[in-house]
Write a structure and sequence with these properties.
three-stranded antiparallel sheet, mainly beta, 89 residues, 0% helix, 8 strands, five-stranded mixed sheet
Length: 89
């Protein structure tokens, strides 16, 4: 999962909600699925922000923790699945 296609579909795995995203190379800036407020940067490389539940990306507005769970790549499209954990206060 080192390369994300520019026109990848990014969705929340549990709900199927599609979120806006700007993908390039191994980076994806995704709209926070919890608050739809700030973009959250995810890097599809081992031990990087957003690559696993141990290293999630974090929304600066609501504190939701987001990471890539898997991707389904075909010739013309790619679907990136995300897991979201809401912040507890």
């Amino acid at each position: 999962m080192a390369k994300i296609k520019e026109h990848a579909v990014v969705r929340v795995e549990a709900s199927g909600q599609v979120v806006r995203a700007d993908c390039f190379g191994n980076n994806a800036a995704v709209e926070c699925p919890a608050c739809l407020h700030y973009p959250v940067l995810l890097i599809a490389r081992r031990n990087q922000r957003g690559a696993s539940s141990a290293n999630p990306g974090k929304c600066r507005h609501c504190g939701a923790r987001i990471h890539i769970t898997d991707d389904v790549a075909q010739d013309e499209f790619q679907i990136l699945n995300l897991a979201v954990q809401l912040a507890t206060r």
